Amino acid sequence: MVCRFVLPLVLCYSLSPLLAQEDGPAFFEKNIRPLLVTQCLGCHSAASQPVMGGLRLDSRELAIQGGTRGPALIPGNAGESLLLKVVRHTAGPLKMPPGPKMKDPDAALFAQWIQMGAPWGNTTVSAVPASPQKYWAFVPPRAPIPPMTKNTTWAKSHIDQFLLSALEAKGLSPAPPADKRTLLRRATYDLTGLPPTPSEVQAFLTDTSPSAYAKVIDRLLASPRYGERWGRHWLDVARYADSNGLDENLVYKNAFRYRDYVIAAFNADKPFNQFLTEQLAGDLLPSTSDLPTTFERWTATGFLSLGAKMLAEDDPRKMEMDIVDEQLDTTARAFLGLTVGCARCHDHKFDPISHADYYSLAGIFKSSQTMENFKVVAKWHEYVLAPKEDRDRLSAHEALIETKRKEITARAKTENDRLAAIAQNQVGAYLRAAAHLQRDSQIQIAPVESSPQAITRLANTFDKGNIHRILEKSKPNIPKDSNGPYFAEYTITSPVDGPYQLDILNQEFGSGTADLYVNGAWIKRGLPPVQNRAASPESDGWTYLAIIPLRAGANTIRFEHAARFPYFAQLLLAPHTLPHTPLTAVQIATLYNVNPGFLDQLVEYFERSNGATASVLFPWETQGSSVPLRNWASPAAKLFPTLPHTQELLAARYETLFQQALAAGPKSEDPGLKALHEFLTEKFGPFRAPDNARRYFKASAQAELKALDAELKTLEKSKPDFPRAMGVREGEKIEDLAIHLRGSHWTLGQKVPRTFLKVVAGDNPPAIGPTESGRLQLAQWLTQPDHPLTSRVIVNRLWRWHFGRGIVPSVDNFGRLGEKPSNQPLLDWLALRFIANGWSVKSLHRDMMLTSTYQMSSELNAKAAEADPENVLLWRMPRRRLEAEAIRDAVMATSGGLTHDKPGGSILTYKDRQYVANTEKGGLVDYDRPIRAVYVPIVRSSLYDVFQAFDIPDPTSASGDRDSTVVAPQALFMMNSSVMLKHSRRLAELLLNDQSLDDPARIRLAYERALARPPSPGEIDQAQTFIAQIQKDWANDPIKAWQSFAKSLLSSNEFIYLN
Amino acid sequence: MKRRDLLQLSSAGFGSLALSGILGLEQARAAATDPLAVRPPHFPARAKRVIFLFMHGGPSQVDTFDYKPLLKRDHGKPLPFARPKVVSSETFNLLQSPWAFKQYGQSGAWVSDLFPETAKCVDDMCFIKSMHGSNSRHGGALLELHTGSDTFIRPAMGSWVTYGLGSENSNMPGFLTICPTQSHGGANNFGSAFLPAPYAGTAIGAVGIPSRDARIPFITNTETPRPIQRKEIDYSQILNRQQLAMTGPDRALEGRIESFELAFRMQAEAPDLQDLSKESEATKKLYGLDNPITEDFGRQCLMARRFSEKGVRFVQVSHTYKWDQHEHLKRDHAQNAAEVDKPIAGLLADLKSRGLLEDTLVLWGGEFGRTPTAQGSDGRDHNPEAFTMWMAGGGVKPGLSYGATDDYGYYSVENKVHFHDLHATILHLLGLDHLKLTYKYAGRDFRLTDVHGRVVKDILA
């Protein structure tokens, strides 16, 4: 027997003839079966739901047959058996069993057993019965019969019967009906998210007809406010946001169209099956000549596009699959109430959703197009909402812009190449100039600070300029909508000709410094900004700038910057008397007749290289040092059999050699010349054209480019602007996906056809054609009347939003890990009723709200509370806290300050695809604007404080449930926020301004507006006393005193809780 | 009973728990249902609290703490081995560090001239030279560093720590982040995701706001004098109690009554903790508050010490998005280091002299390192394959340098430490077992370290 090298020593030892003779089945029973049972069969047997990786290890045949990865066992060949590799962690990323690595002796037993030919004991290992009963949620609902109840008068509908029967079974009875005010307040907030007005309360109280309440429900459902409330509920599920969040937080300026679509859909009572279909496949519905309908359908597909995406991911395939995953997970949670995302990497551990199921669905989204590209930073697709002619016109215009851009780039490149060619021929001059510059930079010149002969000027006393008169630190200091370059010019009168030292005070350098010109001659180059300095550093005190030549009489000193104007406080000129006159780079470049841009690059190169042996300029850099020439490790060394003795000669020799290298070209056979050529032409070498080289172009080229720029600008300005909507369309490539083993696109398994979840697919799932992504069929499948999940999931959501808790409390998870329905017959009855009513959401509201259940009070019943503390059976109407939007809207509505104008777009002040600023939230959007909260943007990663404090769900994942925490930041909002301060004052003014009211009447009005009820006489007394007392603290300012009262009332529990 | 079960058994789910949590009242704490109540660790802790000094942008390891003499020797030569499969962008030949390195202290740790002040503390520091992550872009890498996941929204490490241990100050949140970034994941880097809301990091200010002006949202009221506000709250509480008498016991309503009291106390305590005027001149100087270059970051560090001292569990200080030198490495890394060097050294010295370093874990680092190869002429690209982070205090071996990179600092090669391992180690130092600190969500137990993580035992003191 050959001992394979992959097997460790322990195995070789254990394969001694003595042990090998051990009886096979006995060895299996004693050593292997226990390992399989304890370590493997949990996920790899007939009883596993599902069978992970398709691999079963409960019989020898199945183990040999293997799963998606191929055979697990090769009897007699332990080294090649996958089973052994994975337990030894030598099979790449696949390591089993999960958790700590299997102990070596155990793995050795496996090895020995396989080597023995994998003898088996009994045929199978598992004892758990296969095929458990089908899970309730995967069986379509069948019409349940409403149960009989002992109390035969209470139930108004079948819904009541289902609930009452469950209560009676526990010996409980429902709470008495709520009073009319409570009911109206509940229904109004519930359907519109707003308090009832005093006149609405009055009208309801006076209407004593039996249909009074039903009429109120109809009125509320017909109100445009209804869609604003219920659309928002759906937006939670659609993880709606106005920015991408995640890594690169770009603005989704057009997301609002989807939001408005949702609001309109609810208001119009669009059948839910149609609503669903439009969101998944609006673009694939039979075409219509009606443009608004087409646009609406495109907009609806925004549902798939709104997710948070990793827009800066260096691996485009990962980015694409992450986006597909997000869409798949959101779709499954929203409509199926299932978490499918787990199956991206492996079979779902608890629900019968296999790894293959996942990629069957993923293929549908992969074959659809969400993105224009997967670059860093990637660009999402947006529909142009315009007729075909206009869209064509736009494309043509965009092509023109692109052509113009290319023209400019090409023109600039010609000039860049020309500049570089000149510089590459003057290496000698550059070397000498660089040496001069390096020498001069060593000379330290201290600022003068003060001198009797000094001429000083305050920076803001410039004689000519196009900047603000008052310069501010860290500000651009330029007027809005004006064009650069920005400059300030000072006329300085000098008594004599001669050199002067120029210093400036408190120079800002963080945002870049200005160029300096004296009498029209360029003296010093400005510096680009320091990265990401919100607060610009500045030097504390005087900074030396340059020695400049002045002539007797008037001189012009000009500071210039292309984009902004950096702050400084003063400038000072003093006669230059020091022995040294260091020159700036620009001055030296002029002196040697070279280009300052290239000169700077060469000096930078020397600083970086610092005598590196690989440098082609090694002998130049190490002149005068003790470093021996033999260290020179560049092929260029061969070109210098001897070294010239002076710097001058060395420079000349280099110039000649570089010219030879240029003539020899990039493919020269002489390695030395080739190295020199590479040095001259390398992408970031010192002799490449400098960034922003335009200033060095000849005047005619500059003029040409300026004209081209202007043409581009005109083109860009005249680009037709059409409304756009985020959305998805069919992909260019329709394809089935291969299973991604462990979720990685680096390890692919077999391809699986595009289709739906097998466990609920039914007998006749719609077929997907080879040229279709399958989104339309996905929608058709989801809206089949006998689909076991879609209708149950949505009716359960509505129930949650009305009653605070779903019949299935885990509203987004109907799988095995979710919670069981508290009343499945009720759920099924609602689901079937919903479909029978044509998927009408408004009918469903009526069904739920016209029940006795909904109209119960929230009164405490000690007996019921003990039997059912969580009120699962609904023995009373639960008391609920208002949600974030309703709190904000209610505060504004109570003060009379809320407007019902639709903002007609996004109120973000940013452009589409613009980065959400790295600065404070203030500039992004006016959060205090008194429009309904549903129109306030949801900025991912930077949520509005009020939304954050009051439990808006994370807008990156679908969620049909909200927490209602009670935390201190909420109290701080009530105490200190501008919304509260502003609107409590407004309420105070509203009360005081009505001269017809006395104080008790004012208090009554405040209660009516805030709480929809009148105060008791005791409450009026109490309020009057409080107002009188606190008015003294406010120096007898009545408005302040009433504002205090308003604040207290709006802060009270009764205001933000619904009974 | 596990704390997770406690959190989940309540009638109204997280809601009522969270509310009892912030009651802040002793009786609520005694009821052990308070999410911010102090909870014992799994095993004796070496550190009680964390201060994380976050260098956003990706400081270059080969220019700061990971000395690579061969990089100097081979400057200008091509990288002699393969680059990673996925890179941010093209880089060129090797680029030597513009800064000289020297050895410091008893431990002889190498530090570049960028950090002359911090260098004086090396004998208190423990360097991990072999950090690596999985994402080469800021957004992904920030999320991975802060939450352990670059694919999904997950709770931040500060949230996990607060969930595990609670808060020692009932008037303050357990997890504070001073001037955090709003980009590259923004609030997700300090959010609680599926953990209950009280574990979310509370932001004090934001990037771009000078730290002297940084405040907790809604903490100040410019209109209403404190005594008047007290009366307003008192009146509101009268209304609340009258209502409560009508409704009967209701945890939410009771909780909200208490939340106003906590808010009122927090409103008094937080500004006081942020008020640095009470610190001595010597202390202010120690943190560089006397110098405009170091003032902003120094103020953050000093605030962090004051919060830590008062029992805030996890404090993050951010030097936000400044370390991303694709170009101007020499100028801008110098500027960055100048802004933080003195404050960091001041913080370490101050913690030490107050005896706080014993049980405070200080962590320093960015979301990734940078390439030893040049980008452009004076820049380096992102490099998640290797970078240095360091810790000090709470239970780490002082003066240790752990792990190593290759000759040029491109890849971690010896004793590699992934973010997951770092997380596991931080939790371990705090007395928490990263395998046991779990939270059930969407049907499965989640961990900060997901299915990864190894405690780096070699760096434990």
Structure description:
The complex is a heterodimer of chains A (1059) and B (461). Chain A is α+β, with helices and mostly antiparallel strands. Among the domains of chain A are: 107 residues, no CATH class; 139 residues, no CATH class; 111 residues, no CATH class; 138 residues, Jelly Rolls, CATH 2.60.120.260; 81 residues, no CATH class. Chain A contains 38 helices and 19 strands. Chain A has a 5-stranded antiparallel β-sheet with strand order 6-7-12-9-10. Chain A has a 4-stranded antiparallel β-sheet with strand order 5-13-8-11, with no helix packed on it. In chain A, helix 3 crosses helix 6 and helix 18 packs antiparallel against helix 25. Chain A is globular and about 115 Å long. The relative contact order of chain A is 0.12. With 461 residues, chain B is of the alpha/beta class. Chain B has a single domain, classed as Alkaline Phosphatase, subunit A. In chain B, 32% of the residues lie in helices and 17% in strands. Chain B contains 12 helices and 17 strands. In chain B, the strands form 5 sheets. In chain B, strands 1, 4, 5, 6, 7, 8, 11, 12 and 15 form a 9-stranded mixed β-sheet that branches. Chain B has a two-stranded antiparallel ribbon with strand order 2-3. In chain B, strands 9-10 form a two-stranded antiparallel ribbon. In chain B, a hairpin with a 6-residue loop joins strand 13 and strand 14. In chain B, helix 2 packs across helix 8, helix 7 packs antiparallel against helix 8 and helix 10 packs parallel to helix 11. Chain B is globular. The N terminus of chain B is likely disordered. Chains A and B meet through helix 21, helix 32, helix 33, helix 36 and helix 37 of A and helix 2, helix 5, helix 7, helix 8 and helix 11 of B.
Indicate the topology.
The complex is a heterodimer of chains A (1059) and B (461).
Chain A: H1 9-14, H2 17-20, H3 24-40, H4 60-65, H5 82-87, H6 104-115, H7 158-169, H8 180-192, H9 198-206, H10 212-222, H11 224-237, H12 255-267, H13 272-281, H14 291-300, H15 302-305, H16 316-336, H17 355-366, E1 368-369, E2 371-373, E3 379-380, E4 382-384, H18 388-424, H19 427-442, E5 455-458, E6 464-465, E7 486-494, E8 498-505, E9 515-518, E10 521-524, E11 542-550, E12 553-561, E13 570-575, H20 585-592, H21 596-609, H22 618-621, H23 647-664, H24 671-681, H25 699-717, E14 724-726, E15 729-730, E16 737-740, E17 748-752, H26 775-782, H27 790-803, H28 824-836, H29 841-849, H30 862-867, E18 880-881, H31 884-894, H32 945-949, H33 968-976, H34 978-993, H35 999-1011, H36 1017-1033, H37 1038-1051, H38 1053-1056, E19 1057-1058
Antiparallel strand pairs in A: 1-15, 2-3, 4-14, 5-13, 6-7, 7-12, 8-11, 8-13, 9-10, 9-12, 16-17, 18-19
Chain B: H1 3-8, H2 14-23, H3 26-30, E1 49-55, H4 69-73, E2 101-104, E3 109-112, E4 125-132, H5 138-147, H6 157-165, E5 175-178, E6 202-204, H7 226-247, H8 251-274, H9 281-286, H10 295-309, E7 314-319, H11 329-353, E8 360-365, E9 369-375, E10 379-383, E11 387-393, E12 400-402, E13 404-405, E14 412-414, E15 417-418, H12 419-429, E16 439-441, E17 444-446
Helix pairs in contact in B: 2-8, 7-8, 10-11
